[in-house]
Amino acid sequence: MTQLFAVTRSRGPAWKDDRPMEEQGEWDAHAAFMNSLVSDGFVIIGGPLEGTRDVLLAVRADSAAAIEARLAADPWSEMELLRLGRVAPWTLRMGTLP
């Protein structure tokens, strides 16, 4: 059964701080990968947390292991531009997500 998770990813050691996100290596491949996760309904919403090195994703999945496996296929994971941080089940008490 799918459930909702809050997932954080952080910039890894290969991230070049002097370059914007869109100028990091393999940007197009990463963007296409992330867009496919949204199209599949796996990622509901997501984006960088301003003032941090982190990204927050709202994800629907069967388990934390499924999330880890799916995000491992991101070119930016393989290149160590992003690393998986926390994967936590999220009980939504207010509002709704699509």
In short:
By secondary structure, the protein is an alpha+beta fold. It is 27% helix and 32% strand.
Question: Number of DSSP strands?
Answer: 4
**Tally of discrete structural domains:** 1
Average pLDDT confidence is: 96
Give the distance, in angstroms, between the N- and C-terminal Cα atoms: 17 Å
Which structural class do the helices and strands define?
A: alpha+beta
Biggest β-sheet: strands ordered side by side in the sheet: 2-3-1-4
Characteristics of this structure?
4 strands, four-stranded antiparallel beta sheet, 32% strand, Alpha-Beta Plaits
Describe the structure.
The chain is an alpha+beta fold and 98 residues long. The protein has a single domain (3-89), classed as Dimeric alpha+beta barrel (Alpha-Beta Plaits, 2-Layer Sandwich). It is built from 3 helices and 4 strands. It has helices spanning 27-39, 64-72, 75-78, and strands at 3-11, 43-48, 54-61, 82-89. It has a 4-stranded antiparallel β-sheet with strand order 2-3-1-4. A hairpin with a 5-residue loop joins strand 2 and strand 3.
